[in-house]
């Protein structure tokens, strides 16, 4: 039984306003969640905040939602999430704000976990029935696009992914070391490099795509050799941000039609042995995605973020079209924990790899680490920076306290 709900305005890592929710149960258990926000937001995501921002959302939840939740003895996770959808009444949570619904939803789940004396990951994995595994961390090493200024790379994220580490700790340290090595390499080049970082902690430098990949490759080779590891390279192109309706726009390179964009990605994959490619094409390009997936999908994760927006209807379409082999999971894209789990289940049933993900504007909340342990093979949450390492360090703690094994992607 929910006894009380507290809502407060806090700030995220970009200094933007967001909400933190606490759900209090009559047993005395408490669950808390605070919601992140994106900069390269997909067209089909839940609307993060109502038009009037956090203040309007707080007022709406106080007046319209809280009275229906407090003392309601019929609530379980599914019913709570259903009720949130009904009260809001829109397709994309535009009245309440998806950041409010997801915060209520996850805070409730965490309160129930505390009531049953389980860590959140254990509660979740008991509910949905997958064997817990520590997810492999995708680290953001060089960053641009919507996460930095015009002087940065045009591609949003240059990533590394340790493929078969002995422990999650080794993998987290590996990404941090690649980040440090990349910083050293960029400083040696000096040209225009100020040491600045983007929203997710990746280095910001005036490089074209291939220059950035060369820096990344050199940095990861040093770490692989020194620590005897196998580290893959990945990209998030966040290509919806580049697509103008007829071409993908590049400032440091030629603009590309869809066919040229696909050729470009295929040649980068050959040259740099890319293991992970997220949003290579626009969010509506299901067919282009399936061309790429049929060429590269045997040895590379082709992951849909804006393509799927954690939405089972869009995922279903992707499965039918064979558009990808991997799904990015961002709980606030869909606005409830039930919606998040439905997306994960649909992916699992079709042998997709799941990647739970942070947003560029994050809080220090570490719930996505628990979601990752319960049900995803990979976690994408940066390599450095307080709001990123809060999640990575939680994985190290869970590893230390349990005998849960680390995932692997021997590809
Ligand atoms: P966002 O970007 O959080 O700014 O939407 C992250 C991503 O595209 O993966
Ligand atoms: Zn993305």
From TrEMBL:
Q: Which UniProt keywords apply?
A: Cytoplasm, Glycolysis, Lyase, Magnesium, Metal-binding, Secreted
Cite the SMART domains for this sequence. Answer: Enolase_C, Enolase_N
Tell me which Gene3D superfamilies the record gives.
Enolase-like C-terminal domain, Enolase-like, N-terminal domain
**Binding sites annotated in the UniProt record for (2R)-2-phosphoglycerate:** 156, 330, 359-360, 380
**Reactions performed catalytically:** (2R)-2-phosphoglycerate = phosphoenolpyruvate + H2O
Q: What is its EC number?
A: 4.2.1.11
Annotated Mg(2+) binding lies at 236, 278, 305
Which pathway is this protein engaged in? Carbohydrate degradation; glycolysis; pyruvate from D-glyceraldehyde 3-phosphate: step 4/5
Domain Enolase N-terminal: residue ranges: 2-124
- Main localization category: cytoplasm
PROSITE patterns reported in the protein's UniProt record:
ENOLASE (PS00164)
**What Gene Ontology molecular-function terms does this entry list?**
magnesium ion binding; phosphopyruvate hydratase activity
What SUPFAM superfamilies does the record tag this protein with? Answer: Enolase C-terminal domain-like, Enolase N-terminal domain-like
Task performed by this protein = Catalyzes the reversible conversion of 2-phosphoglycerate (2-PG) into phosphoenolpyruvate (PEP). It is essential for the degradation of carbohydrates via glycolysis.
Q: So what family is this one in?
A: Belongs to the enolase family.
This chain's protein is named Enolase
Gene source species: Methanohalarchaeum thermophilum
The record's gene field reads: eno
């Amino acid at each position: 039984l929910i006894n009380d709900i507290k809502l407060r305005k806090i700030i995220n890592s970009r200094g933007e306003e967001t909400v933190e929710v606490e759900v209090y149960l009559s047993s005395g258990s408490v669950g808390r969640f605070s919601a992140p926000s994106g900069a390269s937001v997909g067209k089909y995501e839940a609307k993060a905040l109502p038009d009037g921002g956090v203040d309007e959302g707080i007022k709406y939840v106080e007046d319209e939602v809280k009275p229906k939740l407090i003392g309601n003895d019929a609530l379980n996770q599914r019913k709570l999430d259903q009720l949130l959808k009904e009260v809001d009444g829109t397709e994309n949570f535009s009245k309440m704000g998806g950041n409010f619904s997801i915060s209520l939803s996850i805070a409730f789940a965490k309160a129930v976990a505390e009531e049953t004396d389980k860590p959140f990951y254990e509660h979740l994995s008991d509910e949905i029935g997958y064997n817990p595994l520590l997810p492999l961390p995708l680290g953001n090493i060089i960053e641009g696009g919507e996460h930095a200024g015009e002087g940065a790379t045009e591609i949003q994220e240059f990533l590394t992914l340790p493929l078969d580490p002995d422990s999650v700790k080794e993998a987290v340290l590996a990404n941090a070391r690649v980040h440090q090595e990349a910083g050293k390499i960029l400083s040696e080049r000096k040209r225009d490099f100020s040491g600045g970082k983007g929203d997710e902690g990746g280095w910001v430098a005036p490089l074209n795509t291939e220059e950035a990949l060369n820096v990344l490759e050199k940095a990861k080779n040093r770490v692989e050799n020194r620590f005897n590891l196998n580290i893959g390279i990945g990209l998030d192109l966040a290509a919806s941000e580049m697509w103008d309706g007829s071409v993908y726009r590049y400032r440091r390179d030629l603009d590309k039609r869809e066919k040229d964009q696909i050729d470009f990605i295929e040649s980068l994959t050959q040259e740099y042995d890319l293991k992970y490619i997220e949003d290579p094409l626009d969010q509506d390009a299901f067919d282009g995605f399936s061309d790429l997936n049929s060429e590269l999908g045997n040895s590379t994760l082709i992951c849909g973020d804006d393509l799927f927006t954690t939405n089972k209807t869009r995922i279903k379409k992707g499965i039918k079209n064979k558009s990808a082999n991997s799904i990015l999971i961002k709980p606030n894209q869909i606005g409830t924990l039930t919606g998040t789990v439905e997306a994960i289940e649909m992916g699992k049933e079709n042998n997709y790899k799941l990647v739970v993900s942070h947003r560029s504007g994050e809080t220090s909340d570490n719930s996505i680490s628990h979601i990752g342990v319960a049900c995803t093979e990979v976690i994408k949450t940066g390599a450095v920076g307080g709001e990123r390492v809060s999640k990575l360090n939680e994985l190290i703690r869970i590893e230390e306290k349990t005998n849960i094994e680390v995932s692997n992607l021997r590809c």
